[in-house]
């Protein structure tokens, strides 16, 4: 297999018809690590919109149960990519997502903005740090994939093209980014979670590196000091060097879904999609006597 094996395969597919397959290859074969980082930063940007950041602070899921909330988000989104929208796993994951969101008064505009971060931030990440940028086929397929996800979430007035998503994101951030104490608490908790994934002093280093990867509007909104320019340049340069090193590796033969990441830590004995996330008190729909130890339908 040559390094461009998967890209050549992608170019033979139709991004309007085969968008799920293209997106799955891109996420699980071409950019597994980068996609997880990019989507993490995509969600992180949403905290800077007070209506989103404040709600996340009020639920306390990201401030008191950061690891579980991170894991649940990864596993739910991962199931849809891995199995496809028509699969039982994806239907269960989407059902869980919609059940959780339904408990809160979230505007369609905020939903559209979050969806836009999923489309725009990964492309910008690959342009800056990936071992290659997303191809036009991948961008179109990714756009179609998240348009489909948005429809399953009943989001209205979804943009049709990447350019429309990008314009929506930039305009929404210019209009809505604002300081909020609750949002800052969520941001701090997320950075603490990132630090917890690494041993000893390395955790502090990675926390600082994460701040160095933020753009100035995001830093200003959270009230964080702009990092030392030399440190910032070193971190970003190191990320670009990593991309060049990955370019020299052979193509990934086996898919690497995000659930296999060592940072997903909450379900050492497996999990059921129907039990992920949060529930109103006393409403967990899965009979606990039906659980069989060691025989969950998924393993991390």
Description:
This protein is mainly alpha-helical and 300 residues long. The protein has one domain. It contains 14 helices and no strands. α4 packs across α11 (181-196) and α8 runs antiparallel to α9 (136-152). The protein is globular and about 50 Å long. The chain starts with a helix and ends in a 53-residue tail after the last helix. The relative contact order is 0.17.
List the helices and strands and how they pair.
Blueprint: H1 5-11, H2 19-30, H3 32-46, H4 50-59, H5 61-64, H6 66-83, H7 88-102, H8 108-129, H9 136-152, H10 162-176, H11 181-196, H12 201-212, H13 216-222, H14 229-247
Structural category? mainly alpha
- Proportion of residues in extended strands: under 5%
Order of helices and strands: HHHHHHHHHHHHHH
Number of domains: 1
Beta strands, count: 0
Q: Main β-sheet: number of strands, strand sense, barrel status?
A: none
Shape type: globular
What key phrases describe this protein's structure?
single chain, 300 residues, mainly alpha, globular
Can I get a quick summary?
The protein has 300 residues and is mainly α. The protein has 14 helices and no strands. The chain has one domain.
């Amino acid at each position: 297999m040559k390094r461009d094996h998967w890209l050549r395969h992608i170019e033979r597919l139709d991004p309007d018809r085969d968008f799920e397959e293209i997106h799955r290859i891109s996420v699980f074969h071409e950019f597994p690590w980068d996609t997880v980082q990019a989507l993490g930063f995509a969600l992180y940007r949403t905290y800077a919109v007070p209506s989103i950041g404040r709600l996340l602070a009020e639920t306390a899921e990201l401030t008191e149960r950061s690891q579980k909330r991170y894991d649940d988000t990864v596993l739910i989104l991962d199931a849809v990519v891995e199995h496809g929208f028509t699969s039982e796993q994806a239907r269960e994951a989407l059902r869980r997502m919609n059940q959780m969101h339904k408990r809160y008064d979230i505007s369609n505009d905020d939903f559209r903005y979050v969806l836009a971060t999923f489309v725009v931030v990964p492309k910008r990440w690959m342009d800056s740090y990936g071992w290659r940028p997303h191809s036009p086929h991948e961008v179109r397929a990714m756009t179609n994939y998240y348009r489909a996800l948005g429809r399953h979430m009943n989001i209205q007035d979804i943009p049709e093209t990447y350019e429309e998503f990008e314009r929506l994101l930039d305009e929404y951030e210019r209009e809505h980014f604002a300081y909020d104490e609750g949002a800052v608490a969520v941001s701090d908790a997320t950075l603490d979670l990132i630090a917890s994934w690494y041993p000893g002093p390395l955790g502090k280093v990675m926390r600082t590196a994460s701040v160095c990867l933020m753009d100035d509007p995001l830093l200003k909104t959270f009230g964080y000091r702009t990092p030392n320019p030399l440190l910032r340049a070193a971190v970003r340069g190191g990320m670009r060097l990593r991309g060049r090193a990955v370019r020299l590796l052979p193509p990934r033969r086996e898919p690497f879904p995000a659930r296999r990441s060592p940072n997903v830590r909450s379900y050492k004995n497996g999990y059921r999609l129907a039990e992920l996330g949060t529930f109103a008190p006393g409403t967990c729909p899965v009979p606990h006597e039906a659980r069989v130890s060691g025989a969950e339908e998924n393993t991390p």
